[in-house]
Amino acid sequence: MVVRISNLRKRFDKNEVLRGVSIEVPDGKVIGLIGSSGAGKSTLLRCTNFLEPPDSGTLEFDGNVVDTTHASKQQVQELRRQTAMVFQNFNLYKLNTATENIELALTHAKHYAPKKAHETSLEFLNKVGLHAKRNSFPDQLSGGQQQRVALARAAVLRPKLMLLDEPTSALDPENIGEVLKVIKNLADEGQSMLIASHEMNFLRRICDHVVFMDQGVVKEEGSADQIFNHPKEDRTRQFLSGVTPQEEA
């Protein structure tokens, strides 16, 4: 099964943030999105599950093609059922425990019975190393622990595609490693992922394919080795070396 994002466009007022972006995510593969802030990475992720409705383009899951210009409510709901998103700032329910945050995802999205939802939630908390924190509320957890709960909440839905938007950007350096370990474990289990991140060394190790975005377009894509070690485009090399191109006069 391949997830195909084709010719996706999105404009905010006069600013065209996505200008015909096309990406494929083969089953069980991890695709990295890199690029400067404002390149369109987060908008692409949000458009893929209609948190931001695209202006045009198509999305294909399991051979079902959705024209985003005319997507029905039912089609949008089905797309959302096949994706799960992990945000920069966790987006946990503050008044619910770690276990309850995961249970709510299962009872609402998968219609699990309460007992099964509880048992499955504990299983996934154990997978991310947080069984001991099962009764803790978000404000009792570190940033890294909150993000691990968010990852468990996404993974428990067994989505066709997991969307990760800068999952470590809000974390202290000491918490980044524990979150990256969970993401690596999910990848090793065959979870398809589309990850926007500035953790270049991590993406180099985990990604099957890397896409460099610049000003709303795909500037270059290829294997992790090709993009990080042998980029073809000048703009890709500039980005990876930390050089910002001078503005034209």
Automatic annotation (TrEMBL):
InterPro entries, A to Z: AAA+_ATPase (IPR003593), ABC_ATPase_HisP-typ (IPR030679), ABC_transporter-like_ATP-bd (IPR003439), ABC_transporter-like_CS (IPR017871), MetN_ABC_transporter-like (IPR050086), P-loop_NTPase (IPR027417)
This entry's Enzyme Commission designation comes to 3.6.3.25
Q: Name one GO cellular component term.
A: plasma membrane
Its placement in the membrane is given as: Peripheral membrane protein
One GO MF term, please? Answer: ATP hydrolysis activity
- Entry-linked Pfam families: ABC_tran
The ABC transporter domain, residue ranges: 3-240
Q: Which UniProt keywords apply?
A: ATP-binding, Cell membrane, Hydrolase, Membrane, Nucleotide-binding, Transport
Its annotated compartments are:
Cell membrane
Q: What is its main location?
A: membrane
Judging by the UniProt lineage, the source's domain of life is: Bacteria
Looking up PANTHER family in the UniProt record yields: AMINO ACID IMPORT ATP-BINDING PROTEIN (PTHR43166), L-CYSTINE IMPORT ATP-BINDING PROTEIN TCYN (PTHR43166:SF35)
What protein name applies here? L-cystine ABC transporter, ATP-binding protein TcyN
